[in-house]
Design goal:
The chain is of the alpha+beta class. 50% of the residues lie in helices and 17% in strands. The longest helix has 21 residues, at 172-192. It is elongated, with a radius of gyration of 21 Å. The N and C termini lie far apart (49 Å).
Length: 194
């Protein structure tokens, strides 16, 4: 059974029914891997897709709470309106949790024709998930073995060789051997495209 979309009720003065009634838009937003939040001008949460809800709960340890760093980014966007008017502007920030997971925050204005006032669109990107997706794509592109793909993912996360070896229960020499093989495969792939 499909989980109910995590809508949060907007204040009565703000007519959010077009967003709630727009099944196409909500289907698109639910399809994103990134967390998507929509906040009103009072920085109240109006909508969160499933990844957005999960990330916020992970960062705040509360239901339907918006992380402080997201609220600070929204405040910066609101304050920038005095300087930049209606020019397109994206405020970016990062937040790292106690487990050293990093999330990129991007906040920009969202204007939908049916809404009475503009809202803020917040995108929350799990940097580790993004790196993992990139590493999987590259592993397929370069024809890496499963073990080389594991080494490549950890290298993509900027872990030193010693840490990669410890996490995979292999020696540093084995890590070096895998990284050498990966570089050879990358180079062969790049030369085949020239």
């Amino acid at each position: 059974m499909k989980q109910q979309l995590p809508f949060i009720q907007a204040p009565k003065k703000m007519n959010m029914s077009p967003l709630e009634d727009n099944h196409f838009l909500t289907s698109v937003l639910e399809g994103f891997v990134d967390g998507i939040l929509i906040l009103n001008l009072q920085h109240e949460l109006v909508y969160a897709n499933t990844p957005g809800t999960r990330i916020c709960q992970h960062l705040t340890q509360q239901n339907h709470a918006v992380p402080d760093e997201v609220l600070r980014s929204c405040e910066a966007l609101t304050e920038s309106r005095e300087l930049y008017g209606d020019r397109p502007l994206v405020i970016e920030s990062e937040i790292t949790n106690h487990q050293f997971q990093t999330f990129r925050i991007r906040v920009q204005w969202l204007k939908l024709d049916d809404l009475q006032q503009p809202c803020m669109l917040v995108r929350l990107e799990d940097q580790q998930q993004a790196l993992q997706s990139l590493a999987v794509t590259e592993a397929k592109r370069y024809g890496l073995t499963p073990r080389e793909a594991e080494v490549w993912f950890l290298k993509r996360c900027n872990l030193p060789r010693k840490e990669i070896a410890a996490r995979l229960y292999i020696t540093i020499d084995t890590v070096k051997k895998h990284l050498g093989n990966i570089q050879s495969k990358k180079q062969a792939h790049q030369e085949s495209w020239c």
